[in-house]
Each structure stands twice: as structure tokens, then as C-alpha cells.
């Protein structure tokens, strides 16, 4: 690999591709596959997001992808949605509180690796989400999860918010595990004394319509977990995805889905025979910006001026 | 009005709250500090005065909640009628019938004075005076 001054990200990735092996080779393959999937109008891009992607600094990255029309469907965890809203309502994620975890608890600070959250931001989150729920449920009380997230997104006043950008650009957000989050907890508390009915099964109809009306599907899987399964399993009825990229550090030996090789999905008809599959082992907060920046360079090169 | 609105944090064990529209006696209150779940929360457990059902609710401590206004009254037993008793309120002289609670089934006698309560339009015989 030849490293030069002032290289573009794509030039660096192409150098990695010249070696073509191990992690470097995978990064080049994933970058090209991502650019191809985005560029192909017949391919619907399903972006599955787990892990602390919003607190980990990729909130803006995801919002920009939505604005540019690079993703067609987002599947994520209730936690990422919660953290998106915490920031949208004026809360933050913090650095530099290196302390004993019990001392952090005393100060109302929660830890995610080397980043931190504050209880006061979650108190603000609680106040604001209840206001939004009051507003949303004044007309209708029954929603599927996707509809609820769109309605919340419409009410959010923050240009960097994933929920807001998804709502404005008609990108559906699915969160099959929504209840397992602080937003889910608030929804439960809200339903104790208010009329709000959340229909988790109701999402599947629209999602299957998207799956069946797409010529091809590419799954871009950041992390694993429930969203990874939902992204792949929703494509089961059409014989699986045509392309997939996953970035994970989970191991495969236990048979759990998060670390399962994408090839395994072929045996379940969650990925088609002959589908293009690339797994990159690494931290999503490093790998995804790298391959995404490379893919953007490719897309800009291909664009007719 | 037979109810009023208070903040959850003012509730006490042994006092009353309205859960699912039922006037209920509070049997336990647990609170949690502010945290990832937001502001401080209270979990209130109560038993319906009239339907005897156990219910619970979890709410931020500064949330408003309805409590029933409990009217404690005295009546006199006019007649025993099997599982029911005919009573006369000693202030209003209104007469009405109420079911006899199990614990009073063989203790009530005609002419006895009893305590009863009224809440949310329902009455319940509580004890012999």
C-alpha cells in the first residue's frame, strides 16, 4: 500500500484494495458494494443500526445519508432513537468523566464506553416526549411503530435529527425492539393514563410491501442484534437480500445472530444464492465512516457534471 | 365534585387514590431517584375500596393524579335482609341497602350504628360503631 500526501479517502481505500486481503481487502470490497447499491436505482438500501451509533458520533452521518437519498429503510434500536431525541431536545453526550462507575452513579452520569450521559438530559427528554405524545394522540390514538416514529420526527425541531430527517424525506424507520429503551419506558408510563395503542405487528405489512416492490435489496448492517435480524428476515419472503455488508466485532462460534457470518443467511433464504456479501470485522465508528466516505467519493466521480 | 387533583408525591400509604376510575386504598409506595428513566418516579400500589382489585401505577412524582374525596358517614341498621342490610343515614335520614361485608356477617343487629363511606358515588359499609 502506497500512502501519499493529501490522499482522498477513496485513494486510500483503493490502495487497500491493491493489497486486496484481510481487513484492508474487505474495506475496499465493502466500499464498492455500498457505492454500487446506492447508485443502482433498482436497489433498496436497508440500513440496520445497532450499538451506540448516535452517542458514538454518527448521528450527523446517518442524517446526511437520509438527506442525500442514500437509504430507503432504516431499522434501528429504541436506544438510538432515544439518544437521537435526547440530542434533539437539547441534551448532549459527554466526554471526559473518567471516574469510578459507582461515583458516576452518585452524580447521575451514565457511561457507554468512554462517553457519558446525564440524568438531567433524560429528565428533559421525558418532559418533551410527553408533550409530543400529548400532541400526537390528540387526533389518533392507534399507531404502528413506524407511524409513531414518523409523527415524532415531524414534531422535532433539530436539523441534525435522524427522526426528523427520516420523516421529512419519507424514509421509514422501523424499531421492532422499541419497547426495550427509555422511549419504550416512557411510552409504557404514558399508556397508564392516556389513550395510546402501539401496534408492533402492524409494521410488517408496510415493510413487506417495500420488500416485494423492490427489484433488489441491499442490507447495510452496522452491528448485530434484533435490527440485523429484522433487516434480513423481512426479506425472507422474496428469497433474501441481493447484497449485504455487515460491520461487527461479534464472534460466530456461539451461533448467535449478531456474529453470524452473512453467508449463513443463504441457508435461511435471508440472502439469495449468489448474493454479494462482505463482512468487515471492526468498530463501526471507524469502519462505517471510512467506507461511507469512500462510497461518496465513488458516487461523486460517477455523477455526470 | 367527589374527587380532587394532587401531585403523586403527596400520596401516602393508607390514604386514597383513583386508579382506573376506582377509588382505591394505597397499600404501598416505592420511589426511585432521577436517572435514565427521567425524573424521580413513584410506584403506587392500591386496592379498590369497592371492587377489592389490586392495581398499580408508575408515574413521575410531580405528575398530577386524581384522589377520591371520601365521605365518612354514620348510619343505623333498619333491617337485615340476608346478604344485604337496610341502613338509614343518621344525618340525612336517607335509607338505602348495602351488601354486608363477610367480616360483619354475623355481627350486625337491627338498631346498631355503623360507619360507612361514600366515594365516587359508591357506598361501602366499613364497621360497627
Please describe what this structure looks like.
The complex is a heterodimer of chains A (305) and B (129). With 305 residues, chain A is of the alpha/beta class. Chain A contains 13 helices and ten strands. In chain A, strands 6-2-1-8-9-10 form a six-stranded parallel sheet, sandwiched between helices. In chain A, α3 (54-67) links the parallel β1 and β2 (73-76). In chain A, α1 crosses α2 (22-39). Chain A is globular. The two termini of chain A are 31 Å apart. With 129 residues, chain B is an all-beta fold. Chain B has two domains: 3-68, SH3 type barrels; 71-128, Nucleic acid-binding proteins (OB fold (Dihydrolipoamide Acetyltransferase, E2P)). Helices cover 0% and strands 59% of the residues of chain B. Chain B contains no helices and eleven strands. Chain B has strands at residues 3-7, 16-19, 22-32, 41-48, 54-60, 64-68, 71-81, 84-89, 95-99, 113-119, 122-128. Chain B is elongated, with a radius of gyration of 18 Å. Chain B starts with a strand and ends with a strand. The chains are: A alpha/beta (305), B mainly beta (129). At the A-B interface, α6 and α9 of A face β5 of B.
Write the layout of secondary structure elements.
The complex is a heterodimer of chains A (305) and B (129).
Chain A: H1 9-19, H2 22-39, E1 43-49, H3 54-67, E2 73-76, H4 78-88, H5 101-106, E3 109-112, E4 115-118, H6 119-136, E5 142-144, H7 145-155, H8 162-168, E6 173-174, H9 182-193, E7 197-199, H10 203-213, E8 216-222, H11 225-233, E9 241-248, H12 264-267, E10 271-281, H13 284-302
Parallel strand pairs in A: 1-2, 1-8, 2-6, 5-7, 8-9, 9-10
Antiparallel strand pairs in A: 3-4
Helix pairs in contact in A: 1-2, 1-13, 2-13, 3-8, 4-6, 6-7, 7-8
Chain B: E1 3-7, E2 16-19, E3 22-32, E4 41-48, E5 54-60, E6 64-68, E7 71-81, E8 84-89, E9 95-99, E10 113-119, E11 122-128
Antiparallel strand pairs in B: 1-6, 2-3, 3-4, 4-5, 7-8, 7-10, 8-9, 10-11
Amino acid at each position: 500500500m502506497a500512502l501519499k500526501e493529501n490522499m482522498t479517502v477513496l485513494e486510500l481505500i483503493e490502495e487497500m484494495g491493491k493489497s486486496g486481503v484481510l481487513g484492508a481487502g474487505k474495506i475496499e470490497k465493502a466500499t464498492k458494494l455500498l457505492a454500487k447499491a446506492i447508485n443502482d436505482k433498482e436497489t433498496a438500501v436497508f440500513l440496520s443500526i445497532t450499538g451506540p451509533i448516535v452517542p458514538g458520533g454518527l448521528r450527523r452521518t446517518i442524517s446526511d445519508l437520509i438527506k442525500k437519498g442514500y437509504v430507503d429503510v432504516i431499522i434501528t434500536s429504541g436506544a438510538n432513537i432515544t439518544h437521537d431525541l435526547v440530542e434533539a431536545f437539547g441534551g448532549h453526550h459527554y466526554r471526559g468523566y473518567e471516574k469510578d462507575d459507582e461515583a458516576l452513579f452518585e452524580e447521575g452520569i451514565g457511561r457507554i464506553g468512554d462517553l457519558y450521559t446525564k440524568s438531567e438530559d433524560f429528565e428533559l427528554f421525558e418532559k418533551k416526549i410527553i408533550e409530543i405524545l400529548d400532541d400526537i394522540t390528540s387526533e389518533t390514538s392507534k399507531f404502528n411503530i413506524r407511524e409513531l416514529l414518523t409523527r415524532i420526527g415531524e414534531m422535532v425541531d433539530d436539523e441534525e435529527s435522524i427522526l426528523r430527517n427520516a420523516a421529512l424525506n419519507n424514509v421509514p424507520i422501523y424499531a421492532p425492539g422499541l419497547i426495550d429503551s427509555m422511549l419504550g419506558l416512557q411510552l409504557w408510563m404514558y399508556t397508564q393514563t392516556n389513550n395510546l395503542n402501539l401496534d408492533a405487528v402492524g409494521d410488517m405489512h408496510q415493510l413487506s410491501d417495500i420488500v416485494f416492490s423492490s427489484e433488489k435489496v441491499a442490507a447495510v448492517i452496522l452491528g448485530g442484534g434484533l435490527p440485523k435480524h429484522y433487516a434480513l428476515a423481512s426479506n425472507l419472503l422474496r428469497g433474501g437480500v441481493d447484497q449485504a455488508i455487515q460491520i461487527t466485532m461479534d464472534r460466530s462460534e456461539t451461533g448467535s445472530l449478531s456474529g453470524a457470518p452473512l453467508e449463513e443467511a443463504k441457508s435461511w433464504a435471508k440472502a439469495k444464492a449468489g448474493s454479494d456479501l462482505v463482512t468487515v470485522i471492526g468498530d463501526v465508528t471507524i469502519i462505517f465512516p471510512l467506507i461511507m466516505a469512500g462510497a461518496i467519493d465513488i458516487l461523486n466521480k460517477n455523477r455526470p457534471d | 365534585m367527589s374527587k380532587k387533583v394532587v401531585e403523586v408525591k403527596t400520596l401516602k400509604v393508607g390514604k386514597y387514590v383513583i386508579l382506573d376510575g376506582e377509588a382505591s386504598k394505597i397499600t404501598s409506595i416505592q420511589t426511585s431517584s432521577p436517572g435514565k428513566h427521567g425524573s424521580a418516579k413513584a410506584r403506587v400500589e392500591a386496592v379498590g375500596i369497592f371492587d377489592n382489585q389490586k392495581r398499580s401505577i408508575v408515574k413521575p412524582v410531580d405528575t398530577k393524579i386524581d384522589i377520591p374525596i371520601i365521605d365518612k358517614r354514620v348510619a343505623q341498621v333498619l333491617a337485615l335482609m340476608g346478604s344485604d342490610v337496610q341502613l338509614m343515614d343518621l344525618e340525612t335520614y336517607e335509607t338505602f341497602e348495602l351488601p354486608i361485608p363477610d367480616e360483619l356477617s354475623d355481627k350486625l343487629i337491627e338498631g346498631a350504628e355503623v360507619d360507612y363511606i361514600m366515594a365516587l358515588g359508591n357506598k361501602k359499609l366499613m364497621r360497627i360503631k
